[in-house]
Records
---
Amino acid sequence: MEIMPHLQIRDDLGVHYAILPGDPARVDRIAEQLTDVEELAYNREFKSIRGLYKGVPVLAVSTGIGGPSACIAVEELARVGVTHMIRIGSGGALQPGIHLGDLVMVQGAVRSDGASKMYIDPVYPAVPDFDLLTACVTAARQEQLPYHVGLCRSHDSFYTDQEEEMRTKWTKSGIMVSDMETAALFVVGRLRGVHTASILNTVVEYKDDLEQNINNYADGASRTMQGEWDEIHTALEACYIVSSAE
Ligand SMILES: O=P(O)(O)O[C@H]1O[C@H](CO)[C@@H](O)[C@H]1O
Ligand SMILES: O=c1cc[nH]c(=O)[nH]1
């Protein structure tokens, strides 16, 4: 038996599905939708629990902010036998018509991060697993949740002097939303043979004040908290759909 150096979880858990928020506080809110919850470890930004969703064993593990810590989580989860990973993140809309709390199911990610480039050439695509993405879309449609399917831009920068120009550039290219971890998850997951998907809860609307809106989310603003509940529910249902088909 081995203990993973960063997640501090054992390699004999025998769980195939993991839900991955960035924020450790979101792990506790995932626990509310699970039964038989057990806290496994809380080391650095990585908080890990195990529980059941409709009888399916699931892990919830926070990945922290940005590609480097997300890659560490993906690598160590793959080493303990997790085969399906769904990010449930927060993001900022880059297009009009995407409202607070709407879900964006990511179909592909622009690799504006550094971590995925440490693994492989930037021409390598950052795309989700088709069946897992389909299961997420099926789940959201089933529950009649507000959702979109489109592209995201995963970035490493929040406070550079070029943020406004970067956002305008990606808006013009039809990118739907920004986050910081999806590209790294898709690339490293693909290289390690893991099925990945990413669902982003919109916490900043197009052209709205980025910092103010992220503060509102941290304060528990109701539409973004509803979006968070919806993305957790969608990801758990997707795990159930995929596990039932196996
Ligand atoms: O809410 P999470 O999942 O952390 O996602 C988003 O929020 C953080 C930035 O505020 C970044 O990690 C970004 O990807
Ligand atoms: O632009 C944004 C907004 C929210 N979260 C991000 O990572 N980027």
---
Amino acid sequence: MVILAVGGYDPTGGAGISADIKTSHTLGVYCLSIITSIIPQTNKEVYEKYDLSKENIENQFKSVFEEFEIEYVKTGVLTSQSIDILLKYIDKYDLKVICDPVLASTTKYNFVDEKLMDKYIELFNKSYLITPNREEYNKIMEFVKNKNYHLKKDLYILITGIDDILKRNSTTINIFKGFKINKEVHGTGCVYSTAITAFLSKGYKLEDAIKEAKNFILSSIIYAKKTKYGYNSNPTYINKETVIKNLSYAIYLLKKINFTLIPEVGSNIAESLPLPKDFNDIASLTGRIIKNKLGGFYVVGDIEFGASEHIAKIILSASKFNPKIRSCMNIKYDEDLIKTLKEKFKDKFIISSFDRSEEPPNVSTMEWGTTIACKKIGKVPDIIYDKGGLGKEPMIRVLGKDSIDVIKKVEFIQKIYNSIKEK
Ligand SMILES: Nc1ncnc2c1ncn2[C@@H]1O[C@H](COP(=O)(O)OP(=O)(O)OP(=O)(O)O)[C@@H](O)[C@H]1O
Ligand SMILES: Cc1ncc(CO)c(N)n1
């Protein structure tokens, strides 16, 4: 698959063509790119907008259409000259255009004047989908009304916000629920519209492409790159395939460890999609990791989504505190081990706990216990333990950013346990 991104260049890589290429590449789609303007900027301000000449843009178009067959085009920051050229190519190659109408930067630098708005209306009427944020949508509709213009009836409009509203012919046809993450991230509009374009180029139907791109942009925000003045979106794709691969490799790694910290009830390891809503967003073993008679262990069952409740509840609660925590494994409790980890490895492991005797009635122990353990220290710990209760085995739970991270922590903990027991 190939897509073409036409937009501005942001040297920090947070928005524009750089973000488009990273997004497309992360999704396995080859991204051609045409630069309309060079826009030096930070997350605090835009320094300038240097528009490339009509001749140069014309040659950029000529080169990519000479070398490749292109069906989908995503647009970012455009200029009058680039829109004029694009309009010709849309007709000549019957292009499907996804236009992200970037009227201004998040730092309030205007990219568009009235003359250019006229051109944008012409482009919208030759586009498949436009993806304005709420402010841009209101400006476009006011401009259309004031100039007595009309938008074609079959134009899809995705109004982005936290929830995104898909309209066609002024009728709402779907709403894509979001989840506010407390970060102001630069370039989310670019990444989102490019992700939609990439999924469309893979053959996804529009609403499926938007749904998948929504998961993609949320992951890209969760894993956004901290910069001096803010955050840059970090195109990140974690889907069911990623989770299953991680868990499979994690179990492969576990089998290389002399893992003996197996509780009587057995162990399980689970990993979730980003921002899991329920058990179905979390994969684990359908069976358990259980001791065998030779001092080793068996891994029983397959990896399936929805297979775990106990460990899944821990992840569902922990991810509310830190959406980067997507995995957990329960291992055997040992008092000396916890004591040693607390005294000698506090720089490596953040440890918290809960006391079952303090559990209120009618709660899920794992949800209540995980929440208590996180609230106690104001973050998600690496280890949450409890000393058990009536008919309940004491337990250690190891948490991490994914199941491979968790296994590496378990391997270290096992070595500490072995060193204690050898003394
Ligand atoms: N902090 C956030 N938490 C959750 N979702 C977010 C956040 N910021 C942006 N998004 C999502 O990213 C997508 C695009 O973001 P937005 O609506 O901000 O576009 P935009 O204003 O064009 O972005 P930009 O101009 O920064 O490129 C939307 O689906 C929105 O829900
Ligand atoms: C180059 C570029 N494209 C898009 C945006 C929108 O944020 C930006 N700030 N810079």
---
Amino acid sequence: MAPKKPSCLRSLLLPLSLTLLLPQADTRSFLVDRDHDRFLLDGAPFRYVSGSLHYFRVPRVLWTDRLLKMRWSGLNAIQFYVPWNYHEPQPGVYNFNGSRDLIAFLNEAALANLLVILRPGPYICAEWEMGGLPSWLLQKPEIHLRTSDPDFLAAVDSWFKVLLPKIYPWLYHNGGNIISIQVENEYGSYRACDFSYMRHLAGLFRALLGEKILLFTTDGPEGLKCGSLQGLYTTVDFGPADNMTKIFTLLRKYEPHGPLVNSEYYTGWLDYWGQNHSTRSVSAVTKGLENMLKLGASVNMYMFHGGTNFGYWNGADKKGRFLPITTSYDYDAPISEAGDPTPKLFALRDVISKFQEVPLGPLPPPSPKMMLGPLTLHLVGHLLAFLDLLCPRGPIHSILPMTFEAVKQDHGFMLYRTYMTYTIFEPTPFWVPHNGVHDRAYVMVDGVFQGVLERNMRDKLFLTGQLGSKLDILVENMGRLSFGSNSSDFKGLLEPPILGQTILTQWLMFPLKIDNLVKWWFPLQLPKWPYPQAPSGPTFYSKTFPILGSVGDTFLYLPGWTKGQVWINGFNLGRYWTKQGPQQTLYVPRFLLFPRGALNKITLLELENVPLQPQVQFLDKPILNSTSTLHRTHINSLSADTLSASEPMELSGH
Ligand SMILES: CCCC/N=C1\SC[C@@H]2[C@H](O)[C@H](O)[C@@H](O)CN12
């Protein structure tokens, strides 16, 4: 389906027979039939069986593959968010190119014969950085996010006046494939409960999208009171372990008539670094789906394909302590992070086939996988040795430390530097009051790594140093809170650190542009290391390697490394945290790799400790469920030849 075109042009684009069959834009409709508790599509009873996938977690070259697999699974619709921060990196600067080409994704979905349930926010949650809100909103520190705060609404209006006109032609009644649009996201779970805000959003959507498009809200059962709004169709979200009858009965208090809708039926769940890998059983998920379909409900399965939090895009939760989301968003979904069908997919397809026609024909086979290595990486240099290149504009000086937001550093890392104003002979406590490290701080004195301070976890180190010694603190932003009562999750040193009895002042802030360095400046002449000790702490390692045969999808395995960031041929693959788990491998889509002997390059920024053998491997299977304790047993279980293989060998691509 293409967006609205003059009917004469449409008839030229389509064979006459098809033109006669397809309803013209002026007769296309997607409506709620309250008399019969159902949807109507072009006047005929319709129920959607939908699945969520996020274009912003899947490289564009893989969109078609994932969408066709979802169509083959029996889905007739997909649901996805639009992350504001993915498209407006700075105020008034917009990016809808490449893997951000939202219209191209809508078109790919149309070509796969999939309708679309769109969720443009402005807040989206989704375990995405700051729930999709741009961090530059926090340059006004007093802003009240997700409320009728005029500063927040002004930014929202400006963003939606760019976004919504782009999707207008893609609304179903205009000839496109968007059948409904969600306003906000689980607003009832947010402390503000600001109806003026929700009414403002509803008014903005109506003003820019017209009266015909179905607008809806989604909330958990406990959020319906503050999350629903008159004029917006109310839907719920719940998983296989929840009481469907009880929740749908509660929903009927808000929508006495019209189709029952579960907008997020959880097929799996998210993972946090340091916690066990989450799964949901095939039997429970399929049973719950069948029960809902028997009721005539429309259902969206969250997630149907999870994908990956590449780069720094993961969000975080707060459950007693700060919990960053892992790089993998596999979600134990029916389609795996690498795009492979799982037993859960086939079981769900069988259930769907009992209620509606599913496409025939074979599902595309799993993608070719490859193993490689182990590769031995070499030391490129300590992060401090590249400071001039990492911060070409030079540092910002301030008496007190400044946050990432104050210096307009959205993601990644910032170095904070001060100088010791007296000699400290005895190990002296060093800490940041009020849990003020957001989120991890790698502390160095004259280039020597002293240890890590971690939000909620580790708040004190003991330091010594000379008068005039450099005290360097590399602070890592581990992703802003994507759920919970306060999304104003400022990053950096939120308070001036204290050494002994001294509040440390006179700071230099170096916002680091690491991705630019990795992309453009490596390989470099090894910079001179100005300190007597060997580099320790944040250090770059790298390896250039050929792949002799064809390439396949693969999973980067970093045994013995601690925590850091990885780039493959300049692409930021995401964070690793081998020491914490449960994720032990990073998904590497084959299109990132050069085949047939061309040179590839892997670059690591290891933040803590490098293994004695600085090796990595590429495996043909992911390891997502191995916390550090389990991990050692897992290492032992890996076949000896896998671990002891010599340097790069011919690919076992298959
Ligand atoms: C008890 C759950 C409250 C938080 N809601 C969640 S956790 C996983 C999912 C995604 O974040 C999704 O974006 C939310 O809308 C609902 N949900």
